[in-house]
Design brief:
By secondary structure, the chain is α+β, with helices and mostly antiparallel strands. Helix content is 18%, strand content 36%. It has three helices and ten strands. The protein has helices spanning 92-103, 131-143, 150-154; strands spanning 2-4, 13-16, 20-27, 31-38, 44-49, 56-63, 74-81, 88-90, 107-114, 121-125. Strand 3 (20-27) and strand 4 (31-38) form a beta hairpin.
């Protein structure tokens, strides 16, 4: 089965806070593609789905969009697929290459996602339409992230000089 947002209706959605920046594209009947960075963490990309996928490997390529002259697909990586609602999570390096492809107007395609479908695999593509503008907003969000998360700050050890204490006039 093939999944992907048609270019005419594809959209990128940004959710921002001082703890997390999340840029996502809904993929009809599949789920969503998400670029995510949390405070104090590395950026990552993940596919979220309600489809039943099997564990295995899929290929990730960059392809020409339908409105451009056809070119040979550019292989990016073989990616592990896990069972669950987030079957694909990319490394920081592959995430950066995926971002570069989208900024160049190319279509990222996850092919041969192992599934229970009749042909045994799914193909999921992202639409690069309006990505450049959405990515600019995402970069602005990244500039506003805290340097660490609350969980990281809670584990931080703060040292004090030893040797006693003094009470000032205030009490």
């Amino acid at each position: 089965m093939e999944f992907g947002a048609r270019p005419a209706v594809a959209e990128w959605k940004l959710r921002r806070s001082s703890l997390e920046c999340r840029l996502s594209q809904p993929i009809p009947y599949f789920g969503e593609a998400v670029f995510l960075q949390r405070a104090g963490e590395s950026p990552r990309f993940q596919l979220n789905t309600s489809q039943r996928l099997l564990s295995g490997d899929a290929s990730l390529t960059l392809e020409s969009p339908p409105w451009r002259e056809p070119a040979s697909p550019i292989p990016l990586a073989s990616v592990p697929v896990r069972v669950g609602s987030t079957p694909v999570t990319l490394t920081e390096t592959v995430t950066e290459r995926l971002l570069e492809g989208l900024l160049d107007g190319l279509v990222p395609v996850f092919d041969r996602l192992p599934s229970m479908s009749r042909n045994g695999h799914n193909r999921v593509s992202l639409a690069p339409v309006n990505f450049r503008t959405a990515y600019g907003d995402y970069r602005d969000c990244l500039g506003g992230l805290l340097s660490s998360s609350f969980a990281q700050a809670a584990r931080t050890r703060i040292g004090y000089d030893g040797g006693g204490y003094e009470i000032d006039d205030a009490g």
